[in-house]
Amino acid sequence: MVRRILKETKEYKLSAFLTPVFMILEVAMEMIIPLLIADLVDKGVEVGNLSEIYRIGGYMLICAVVGLFGGIMGGVLGSKASAGLAKNLRRKMFENIQTFSFENIDKFSTAGLVTRLTTDVTNVQNAFIMVLRMGFRAPVTVIVAMILSFKINARLASNFLIAMVIILGFMIFVMMKTRPLFEILMNKYDALNASVQENVTGIRVVKAYVREAYEKTKFKNGSQGIYKAATAAEKMIAFTMPMMNFVVYTCIILISWFGAHFIVIDGTLTTGELVSMFSYCMNILMSLMFFAMIFIMITMSVASIRRIYEVLEEKTTITNGDNPIYNVPDGSIEFKDVVFGYNKTAERPVLDHINLKINSGETIGVLGGTGSAKSTLVSMISRLYDVDEGQVIVGGNDVRNYDVETIRNQVSVVLQNNVLFSGTIYENLRWGDKNATDEEVKRAAKLACADEFIEKFPEGYNTYIEQGGTNVSGGQRQRLCIARALLKKPKILILDDSTSAVDTATDASIRRAFREEIPNTTKLIIAQRISSVMDADRIIVMDDGKVNDFGTHEELLARNEIYKDIYEQQTGAGNGDFDKAEEGGEN
Question: Fewer CB in a 10 Å sphere around the end CB: N or C, the chain?
Answer without folding.
Answer: C
